UniProtKB/TrEMBL annotation:
The lineage of its organism: Bacteria, Pseudomonadati, Pseudomonadota, Gammaproteobacteria, Thiotrichales. GO terms for molecular function: lipid-A-disaccharide synthase activity; phospholipid binding. Pathway: Bacterial outer membrane biogenesis; LPS lipid A biosynthesis. The keyword Lipid metabolism applies. This is Lipid-A-disaccharide synthase. One of its GO terms (biological process) is lipid A biosynthetic process.
Length: 387
């Protein structure tokens, strides 16, 4: 059996690795190839291109890289048309993956998409294209599945793999993480997560360091930890003056975002999957995001939801503060962090709300996704195309 998969960023790589494990539990000899990162490759995945080649965020940024992305798109189409997989699974990166899926469907190849694009939030006109490209949508969140059913698109809600991996109670993990990083249990620790993409770090990295400086001025005992998602981002962030890191009591990590989040009392985080991980670890957070000004100008005219962070979207209310674009200033972010540190009762309340959301998402997601794919496409241990 052959399954083609394309994951376009680090979070998709993690989802893809778990999915491959669940697929192999059903068919140990399954061949999986396409585009993925280190986690998928470690599961025996063959990646035709480096993951970073597809990890491009923002309308303006995509335009700049369009010729290269187009060449990759058609190279993958030609490869799989000549040697068809039993099913193609796009993981996130909807602008690329749904276009590729549509091209493959024209040649009779079955397609699934894992992780819904935010069509419920903006650019709803994409629904018609999704229906044409996708035989099955696998969603991580329950409100997404409800949306697709309303529009007649085959869908299965599978839950989120992170909700399965993170224990419901995490207090002991926090103590261990603080100790591992050299912090005391009583010391207030703030995790700074500027994002996993180079463009995100360039937009937010300096802002978060200045936020830490402002917090330090008002809370002398505060310490900070900043996990760089990739070696390239670590090198970029480490170019800052090391004396600044020392003055801030800042620990710069290479990877280890889970350790940084577990150790934190409060998290300042770029909007994205990291907000979900912070929520599952029951961490009060402040969400920040900045885009290229033109990208943001365009997005504001297309977005139809009130929130951008996953905790707020799941709860459909403003559980955590969000500061976007010009509002994402060191002054706003530092005051929001200090508010969490100074109001333990509010922290206790938000942890209970996060626990409830965690329980909703805990569905054994990778197993559910693999089962849905095998059932929907009637895949057996040996496929018709590849006996």
């Amino acid at each position: 059996m052959k399954i083609a998969i394309v994951a376009g960023e680090l979070s998709g790589d993690a989802l893809g690795a778990e999915l491959i494990t669940a697929l192999r539990a059903r068919c140990p000899d399954v061949q999986v190839s396409g585009i993925g990162g280190e986690a998928m490759i470690a599961q025996g995945f063959e990646s035709f291109y480096p993951l970073r080649d597809l990890s491009v965020m923002g309308l303006v940024e995509v335009i700049r890289h369009y010729p290269r992305l187009r060449r990759m798109l058609y190279a993958l189409r030609d490869r799989w048309v000549n040697d068809p997989p039993d099913v193609f699974i796009g993981i996130d990166s909807p602008d690329f993956n749904l276009r590729l899926a549509r091209l493959l469907k024209l040649h009779g190849i079955s397609t699934a998409h894992y992780v819904s694009p935010s069509v419920w939030a903006w650019r709803r006109y994409r629904l018609r294209g999704i229906a044409q490209a996708c035989d099955l949508m696998l969603t991580l969140f329950p409100f997404e599945a409800h949306f697709y059913r309303q529009h007649g698109i085959p869908v299965v809600y599978v839950g989120h793999p992170l909700a399965d991996q993170v224990p419901l109670q995490v207090d002991a993990e926090m103590k261990h993480a603080k100790s591992a990083l050299g912090f005391t249990t009583e010391q207030p620790v703030v995790a700074l997560l500027p994002g996993s993409r180079l463009s995100e770090v360039k937009q937010l990295g300096r802002v978060l360091l200045e936020t830490a400086e402002e917090i330090k001025r008002q809370c002398k005992t505060a310490a900070f930890v900043l996990p760089a998602a990739t070696p390239e981002l670590h090198d970029l962030l480490s170019q800052n003056d090391s004396t600044q890191f020392n003055a801030l009591s800042l620990t710069l990590l290479q990877g280890q975002s889970r350790l940084a989040l577990a150790a934190a009392d409060v998290v300042v985080v770029a909007s994205g999957t990291a907000t979900l991980e912070a929520m599952l670890l029951k961490k009060p957070m402040v969400v920040a995001y900045r885009l290229h000004p033109l990208t943001y100008w365009l997005a504001r005219r297309l977005v139809s939801v009130d929130w951008v962070s996953l905790p707020n979207l799941l709860a459909n209310t403003g559980l955590v503060p969000e500061y976007l674009q010009d509002q994402a200033t060191p002054q706003h972010l530092s005051q929001a962090v200090l508010h969490w540190l100074q109001h333990p009762q509010r922290v206790a309340e938000i942890k209970q709300q996060f626990l409830y959301l965690h329980q909703q998402l805990r569905q054994n997601a990778s197993e559910q996704a693999a089962t849905a794919i095998f059932n929907h496409f009637k895949l057996g241990k040996f496929s018709a195309k590849h006996p």
